[in-house]
Amino acid sequence: MFSKIKTWRTLVNSGIMKKKELQNEFHVFFLGILYSVLKQEGWFDFLKTSRTPNDIMDQFHYSEPELINEILDILVSENIIKKTPRNGYEVINIEHEPVIVKPALFSDTYYNLWKTYGEALPNRLRGNFMKYTQGQNSGNWEDALKSPFYNSMREASFAFVNFKKKPFRLLDVGSGIGASTAQLWNHLYQKQIISEETIIYGLEPDEKFLHIAIHKNIEVLHFFNNKINLDELKKMQDFFPHFKQGSALKIPFDDNTFDYVYTSHMLYLTDPRKALAEILRVTKPNGTIFGTQAFLSKPYTHIWSLFMKVIEGANGYFTKKELAQWAKEAGGKDVAFATPVVFKFRKNSN
Ligand SMILES: C[S@@+](CC[C@H](N)C(=O)[O-])C[C@H]1O[C@@H](n2cnc3c(N)ncnc32)[C@H](O)[C@@H]1O
Predict the structure, then answer these.
(1) Going by CA atoms, what residue is nearest to atom 1 of ligand 1?
(2) Residue 160: which pLDDT band, with cuts at 50, 70 and 90?
(3) Which pTM does this prediction carry?
(4) What is the rounded distance in angstroms from the CA atom of residue 88 to the CA atom of residue 14?
(5) What DSSP state is assigned to residue 161?
(6) What integer pLDDT is reported at residue 148 of this predicted model?
(7) Which of 156, 254, 324, 331 is the most exposed place for a label (fewest CB within 10 A)?
(8) Pocket test for ligand 1, best of 153, 266, 307 (most atoms within 8 A of CB)
(9) For position 226, what pLDDT does the model report?
(10) Is 2-13+138-347 a domain of CATH 3.40.50.150?
(11) Distance 143 CA to ligand 1 centre (A)
């Protein structure tokens, strides 16, 4: 119970939960992109007359009926179009067209990243995926992954776990540029939990990200630990995190290797069920799995999730209930959530 309060307090103190209008800002932003992308495609002119999903597929040469239905559902729930008889859809005359407004919490770089993913939607509707970092400036991702938006959620997830002061092995799955690994390392360092026998690994499939994580390891660590002077930090090089290339779908470590497995904003970018099974495989019995990510529930997460599906291999967001079910199916127990974005569970003892 106490760790739940600590987790909430960490997130509230970061400012991320303070703004009641935050979710509304996300919603306005993602709806604005969706509307502008579909308008440019010609959807709203075409839907001046009632059309079925098949008509839309034929008109725009699309190949993905599931995604079309998902978009139509979103547009109906946003009162932009309405259902008509015989599986038809027709535009409603709206007073104010949705416009794209950057949420205050988004850095310019993060805003640009999501605009680019959103603009890839028409291509995706024609069956073409994009790779996670393809066509994106990796400097933008580097900047975004060090921004308060991610930092505050990660810090909250650390507060949910009671780390034992004994040597342990920890894996960060989907470690990106190493920001999550560095922030976690810093958290443990501040708590004086890092020792010579502590082993921390970051696992990342993307070469561009991995390159940054390896070659800017000390820079990223210093970013999260700027109270220590750089020369002092350099003396601790032997305890720094290690990085390895690999996917959550085939984790290149033996069964029962890690006491803790962390994953931040990664599960929705892959097959979450398979990834959870792999994560549990490499966790020691009774070991702890913890992390952070948004879950499907609020309207903005539906549109955000839709844009996520332009990325090759991405599942998109899912619910807390699904995470709990998949974790248990794969041998997890004690699944718990704190705040809208933090989770943890343990591996069964046998
Ligand atoms: C939003 S970034 C978060 C990175 C990092 N966890 C952090 O918090 O800074 C998502 C990361 O998940 C990685 N990812 C995507 N699919 C993955 C998979 N199948 N296995 C491992 N990582 C994956 C991406 O390459 C990317 O680095």
Answers:
(1) 265
(2) very high
(3) 0.93
(4) 46
(5) -
(6) 86
(7) 254
(8) 266
(9) 83
(10) yes
(11) 15
What is the 3-class SS of 214-273, one letter each residue? HHCHHHHHHHHCCCCCHHHHHCCHHHCCEEEECECCECCCCCCCEEEEEEECCHHHCCHH
**Which residues pair with residue 298 across a beta bridge?**
296
So where are the chain's domains?
A: 2-13+138-347, 20-104
- State the sign of the Cα–Cα–Cα–Cα dihedral 126, 130, 135, 137: positive
* CATH class of domain segment(s) 20-104: mainly alpha
Amino acid 25: pLDDT = 87
Taking a C-beta distance cutoff of 8 angstroms, is the pair 154, 181 a contact?
A: no
Higher-confidence residue: 231 or 347?
A: 347
Ligand 1 near 145 CB (within 6 A): yes
Tokens coding 43: 């959807």
Helix (H, G, I), strand (E, B) or coil at 55: helix
Q: Which single residue is written with the structure tokens 């991610």?
A: 150
Rounded to 5 degrees, what are φ and ψ at 345? Answer: -160, 175
> What tokens were used for 204?
């990342």
Distance (Å) from CA 13 to ligand 1 centroid = 26
The string of pLDDT tens digits covering residues 174-202 is 999 999 999 999 999 888 888 878 999 99
The answer, yes or no, to whether any atom of ligand 1 lies below 6 A from the CB of 205, is yes
CB contact at 8 A, 42 and 198:
no
